[in-house]
Design brief:
mainly alpha; 246 residues; 9 helices
């Protein structure tokens, strides 16, 4: 308790907490986009529950990993050298997660542009493309990748585990509040779905690049995502104005 009171009285700790919360919220956007797209493929009555379970798993996984910070830090230690490049467990996890994201986003884009692939959404009496269990399993896999990356980043910003835990809990609560509105917005705007899938492709490529040692500043990635979202927002406003004039 004395240790926590000491931390609470330190302005530097509060500054680190604010920066860490902002970072965790931004990193959570990737996770949330994937969860929203995947759960929108479930029957409507299962979507909200699927999102809550997916975000709950993300919180559980992050807190569990924080309990093993010493082990998580060791994941950055090289274990294998190939073609002059040293790889750690974190590198392999990022590469695997990136490949999964690229495969998933490419598959979804193919479903959107190929009219002969069969049903891809729950509509009327047609079946959903994924079962509830399959959706949760895929969310769990990506939760693991994003959680490890998030915790390793957090360790680089502060050494205080209670600060990390508070930041993670706040960020996941923000995700929980934003999940349903974001998913409904994506569902009602088909062009947003394609934009979000493009984001997932970019994020997957970024994870693969980082796994191979290419440091890609996150600021560039999120700036590109924000700019793309701004342009799409202007397109949506233009389409609505044209409909009103028509």
């Amino acid at each position: 308790m004395d240790h926590l009171m000491t931390l609470a009285a330190d302005p530097a700790v509060w500054a680190a907490l604010g920066a860490l919360i902002a970072m965790e919220v931004v990193l959570g956007i990737d996770n949330l986009i994937f969860i929203s797209i995947l759960t929108n493929k479930l029957p409507e009555e299962q979507r909200s529950l699927g999102r809550k379970i997916g975000i709950g798993l993300a919180l559980f996984m992050r807190l569990a990993l924080l309990g093993t910070v010493a082990f998580i830090v060791q994941l950055t230690e090289p274990i294998l050298s190939l073609f002059g490049k040293a790889f750690s467990w974190r590198d392999f996890i990022l590469i695997a997660g990136g490949l999964f994201l690229v495969w998933k986003a490419t598959t979804e884009i193919h479903h959107k542009v190929d009219v002969n692939h069969g049903p891809d959404v729950f509509d009327g009496g047609r079946a959903a493309t994924v079962t509830f269990g399959a959706a949760i399993f895929q969310i769990l896999l990506l939760d693991l990748v994003f959680s490890i990356d998030s915790i390793i980043t957090a360790v680089g910003m502060t050494e205080h585990v209670p600060v990390m835990m508070i930041a993670v809990i706040v960020a996941v609560l923000v995700m929980l509040l934003a999940a349903d509105p974001l998913a409904k917005f994506i569902e009602k705007n088909p062009t947003i779905v394609m934009l979000a899938l493009g984001f997932l492709l970019m994020i997957g490529g970024t994870l693969i690049g980082e796994g191979f040692g290419a440091h890609i500043p996150k600021g560039y990635i999120y700036a590109a995502m924000a700019f793309s979202a701004l342009i799409e927002g202007l397109n949506m406003m233009s389409r609505r104005a044209n409909r009103r004039r028509g």
